[in-house]
Amino acid sequence: MIKELPKLNYAFDALEPYIDTQTMEVHYTKHHKTYLDKLTMAITGTPLENMELEDILMSPEAIDENIRTAVINNGGGVFNHNFFWSVIGPAKSTGPDGMLLEKINGTFGSFDMFKEEFTKSALGLFGSGWTWLVQDKEGNVKIMNTQNQASPISEGYKPLLALDVWEHAYYLKYQNRRADYITNWWNIVDWANITL
Ligand code: MN
């Protein structure tokens, strides 16, 4: 089980001006940390303590009912943020290539059309949640939203790309302007770290 926050490969100010330093710091040291603390609290002394987080979230129905909601919310919060930090970064990569680009082109028509559809999905998400590019067991890619901290791995999907659409991810800089946050976020997607 995860006991610590993952080490970020970049500084809190490295994603400026697209994501501001204060948002990064609060997001990582407060929000992400709180999910980890609450997850630890929920599973300490239970058999889940010795399991991998991925394995727990892949079979949510197997979690003891008394702690299921806490584990899904906080374990999902840990997993989703770990993943989110890994697919963004200061490296200026312009887009996917190779097999991933082929899949995106084949599914959405073009990279631009994919971005448009992904953005639309994120803008349409009501309340708090995430927008994802995921791959199913047959290898197909698709865009999906999840509510709150639900994770696509609980539905059998492999996450390829994640956008945190919770207000805590953008409110300090963008307030209610979610569209501006998303537009700018594309600049910090680190495509080199995204693999099928
Ligand atoms: Mn978040």
UniProtKB/TrEMBL annotation:
- List the coiled-coil residues: none
Any idea which positions bind Mn(2+)? Answer: 27, 81, 164, 168
The highest taxon in the source lineage is Bacteria
Q: Which GO terms describe its cellular component?
A: cytoplasm
Alphabetized InterPro entries for the sequence: Mn/Fe_SOD, Mn/Fe_SOD_BS, Mn/Fe_SOD_C, Mn/Fe_SOD_N, Mn/Fe_SOD_N_sf, SOD_C_sf
EC number(s) per UniProt?
1.15.1.1
Q: Show the Gene3D superfamilies listed in the entry.
A: Fe,Mn superoxide dismutase (SOD) domain, Iron/manganese superoxide dismutase, C-terminal domain
Q: Does the keyword Lipoprotein apply?
A: no
Q: What class of enzyme is it?
A: oxidoreductase
Instruction: Spell out the reaction equation it catalyses.
Output: 2 superoxide + 2 H(+) = H2O2 + O2
Q: Which sequence ranges are marked TM in the entry?
A: none
**Could you tell me what this protein does?**
Destroys radicals which are normally produced within the cells and which are toxic to biological systems.
Its family remark reads:
Belongs to the iron/manganese superoxide dismutase family.
Q: What is this protein called?
A: Superoxide dismutase
What species does this protein belong to?
A: candidate division WWE3 bacterium GW2011_GWC2_41_23
